[in-house]
Amino acid sequence: MRFLRWPVVSDSQAEIDRIAFFSDAVFAIAITLLVVEISVPDGPIAGLATALADRGPKFFAFVLSFLVIGQFWISHHRVFRHLRRYDLGVMWLNLLYLLGVAFLPFPTALLGNYFHSALVGVFYGASLFAPSAMGALLWFYSARRGFLRESPDTRQIGARALVTPAVFLVGIGLAPINIYLSVFCWIILLPLLRLLLSATAE
């Protein structure tokens, strides 16, 4: 696929850092916007406990998406820690990755409002799958183009990049059956698999 082989734009660390700083800003804004949908109760003090309990799904969706975006940021940091040069392909894949991250406050709000909806569960899972898949593409594209520094953990990072979208995809399939099965995949199974891969690498 030679039409995708753009010429190298730069191997300057300062230019690579500029892309990373821009990406960090998008992550920071997206992760901050998650809390906007949780409104402060304005009723009588006697009903405060009930009002807070009613917002339970919103709190859960916030924490879940905060942790997911945080994991995306860690994965993104690993890519740019190894990146020694880039081309337009890297820039476009990074933008598409950030597009998925910036979109996450919307499905998070949906999940908080309609937690038991199968449709919302599928939509939320797909919204997690998209940026995780773009992150994997960014890693493997950079590796194939020879843009990454050699490192003992390169293979392990690649394996983790594949596991993340795979688990999100499984969660999408489970959402119509039971949203709690999807949640199990997202907050328990995925961290366990990633820890297992890290332990195996060591």
How would you characterize the overall build of this protein?
The protein has 202 residues and is mainly α. The chain has one domain. It has 8 helices and 2 strands. The protein has a two-stranded antiparallel sheet with strand order 1-2. The model has no long low-confidence stretch (mean pLDDT 87).
Keywords:
single chain; 202 residues; mainly alpha; elongated
Number of domains: 1
Beta-strand residue fraction: under 5%
Low-confidence stretches: none
What can be said about the biggest beta sheet? 2 strands, antiparallel
**What is the structural class?**
mainly alpha
Question: Taking strands numbered 1, 2, ... along the chain, how are they ordered across the largest sheet?
Answer: 1-2
From the N-terminal CA to the C-terminal CA, the straight-line distance is 36 Å
Shape, please? elongated
Tally of separate helices: 8
What is the mean pLDDT? Answer: 87
Find the count of extended strands (DSSP E, 2+ residues): 2
Fraction of residues in H or I helices: over 70%
Please trace the helix and strand order, writing H or E for each element: EHHHEHHHHH
Rounded radius of gyration (Å): 19 Å
Compact description:
This protein is an all-alpha fold and 202 residues long.
SSE layout and pairings?
Blueprint: E1 8-10, H1 13-33, H2 48-54, H3 56-82, E2 86-87, H4 88-103, H5 105-113, H6 118-144, H7 154-174, H8 179-201
Antiparallel strand pairs: 1-2
Helix pairs in contact: 1-3, 1-4, 3-5, 3-6, 4-6, 5-6, 6-7, 7-8
